[in-house]
Amino acid sequence: xxxxxxxxxxxxxxxxxxxxxxxxxxxxxxxxxxxxxxxxxxxxxxxxxxxxxxxxxxxxxxxxxxxxxxxxxxxxxxxxxxxxxxxxxxxxxxxxxxxxxxxxxxxxxxxxxxxxxxxxxxxxxxxxxxxxxxxxxxxxxxxxxxxxxxxxxxxxxxxxxxxxxxxxxxxxxxxxxxxxxxxxxxxxxxxxxxxxxxxxxxxxxxxxxxxxxxxxxxxxxxxxxxxxxxxxxxxxxxxxxxxxxxxxxx
Amino acid sequence: xxxxxxxxxxxxxxxxxxxxxxxxxxxxxxxxxxxxxxxxxxxxxxxxxxxxxxxxxxxxxxxxxxxxxxxxxxxxxxxxxxxxxxxxxxxxxxxxxxxxxxxxxxxxxxxxxxxxxxxxxxxxxxxxxxxxxxxxxxxxxxxxxxxxxxxxxxxxxxxxxxxxxxxxxxxxxxxxxxxxxxxxxxxxxxxxxxxxxxxxxxxxxxxxxxxxxxxxxxxxxxxxxxxxxxxxxxxxxxxxxxxxxxxxxxxxxxxxxxxxxxxxxxxxxxxxxxxxxxxxxxxxxxxxxxxxxxxxxxxxxxxxxxxxxxxxxxxxxxxxxxxxxxxxxxxxxxxxxxxxxxxxxxxxxxxxxxxxxxxxxxxxxxxxxxxxxxxxxxxxxxxxxxxxxxxxxxxxxxxxxxxxxxxxxxxxxxxxxxxxxxxxxxxxxxxxxxxxxxxxxxxxxxxxxxxxxxxxxxxxxxxxxxxxxxxxxxxxxxxxxxxxxxxxxxxxxxxxxxxxxxxxxxxxxxxxxxxxxxxxxxxxxxxxxxxxxxxxxxxxxxxxxxxxx
Lengths: 250, 549
Description:
- The structure holds two protein chains of two kinds.
- By secondary structure, chain A is mainly α.
- Chain A has helices at residues 2-8, 12-30, 32-36, 52-63, 78-84, 119-127, 129-132, 143-146, 154-163, 170-174, 176-184, 191-198, 216-226, 233-236, 239-249.
- Chain A folds into two domains: 3-38; 48-240, Orthogonal Bundle (Cytochrome Bc1 Complex, Chain D, domain 2).
- Chain A is 50% helix and 0% strand.
- In chain B, strand 1 (245-247) and strand 2 (255-257) form a beta hairpin.
- The longest helix of chain B has 38 residues, at 489-526.
- The interface between A and B is large, with 91 and 98 residues.
């Protein structure tokens, strides 16, 4: 072997090509099939896309680096299922560009936090975490309540997402900014269209408690409240079956 | 400016043209993104380009450099790179201490968005990995490739383009997080325009490297260069694929990743784990394979071990990323492959560590007396320990306990502080006196102080995180007699508090060491040169066989 290698060491280009060839095998074998094998992501009928307001909230979640401390991936382990709820399915992050599974839990997992607490709780907690949970290490995000939400380019965001495969309809794209307002103004004229386009189960509320103004707080709370609620699929399996599978995996 | 005086008038004009081009690009982005956060970055690029243009313009008419320069190695960008390395080290490690303090005392964000943990954390990781690590790699790789090829760099413009352009990328990345620009992919947070810019820089870097190798007088390519080439090439592939995205518009900083969900997770951790492998391992192994034998004045112990470990690492690492996704929605077969290859990976890793330590046989008295060599010895030991721990943590059953906890953070820092930073400091203390033609560092006692600060800091940090990580993992899965979970999440967080304080103390030790090191390096640079007669002697041994053009 050293003899062959001595020859290889004489050519810089040859060496570079060898590096490329040897290093690409692992990725080709492990990643490429994930795009072609159908079972990788479950087929689910009721999976819905994020509304423009939830999407804006998701972008705030990313901007503030929430993923550095909160995972959104409940593993197939008994204690995780009992603490957080049914384990996460691939389909749940099907429209997540990029995914926010996270890698660290300085705070708890948020994959099923939607609907677990009231909007008021979230607003109070985000504004001053230690007023709600005295031992918390979370930074205070009081300024979210002060910042007006940027909505004028939401249509362009939906178009970009459509390019990478999220099934937003033309109507959703056209009404993106309207729908963002509508979802946070339950009594306004724009609210109706939201339910029409995204389904009757869509949360339409003044998330930050102030219907007079659309803030970043509205968007972030709307996003947190939809986490784990985009599809019923994880809950449809019997609770018992979930636990058994989790233990088997262990 | 002495650095510019070393360039010919044509080279200064080329530089001016390139800087002008960058300024124009910045202006275009700034105008298109005037209603977006992108506008700030357009402005930053304009300022960056303009500063370089002004510096060049003011010295455009300086006398032409002497012809004799071409018969020496081209070290100006390397010297500049060493200073940048230390600036980034102090900055990014300071931010590291700061974010660790935020976890102990969360009120320190002062109601300001830019000062919250989530925005500062990537400033720390990017600053350390890309700012400190990347500049160290660029500087040392350009030094090593010239010496081991006995050839001067082929031109004087592209090394500056690579070095300055790369630092522009780092600046865009770090300022972006403060402003709220991030695509949230860990260790690949910069947005689309910064990513494209890095591709341009990286291609230039590779071309520069391969052109220098092509000019070599030695028939064989030395082992350090194998690692530097793997570092440049594989990082390019990882960077391009993981960052594929569709921008919202030309005037928006925001882009949406081409991949989603499970495919995105796998791509991200294929990238993430191999950023560790090829940025933080292969590149620094290249550094080790040159500076450690050089300092010890011993040849590398085994050529065969070098070959095995090089190709082992190049092949196996790319399979290991999926161990970041055990028990998740990633298909089981990918998890199993990731675990298996992670365990096998211990073989080439320990072959490298062993090769380094066995090279020191016959030079152990030097390790005892010379803190610089001791830095590199400790680095090799930590490399061995961390790769063992890495393979261990990749086992599915172990990972069920360790994942999501501080154990991972401790593991990463055993590698980053114990291996990456220590080998870098060892290399810089070897390189600095020789590049500035000094007999030795300004103060050997300060190197000794830095060494002990670094070792103590690393130990405190890693032990604190081992404790907190394992306690956390156990508390999360403890059941009481009635079969329900014993601890609430918040109870596990409260238990972390003392360890978070200890971690800050450890980080403070390490930062202090870096500050001492920076001072020592700056004082070495400012020191009076050695007498000319003595300098001429060393120069003869440190001259290229292939002159520049």
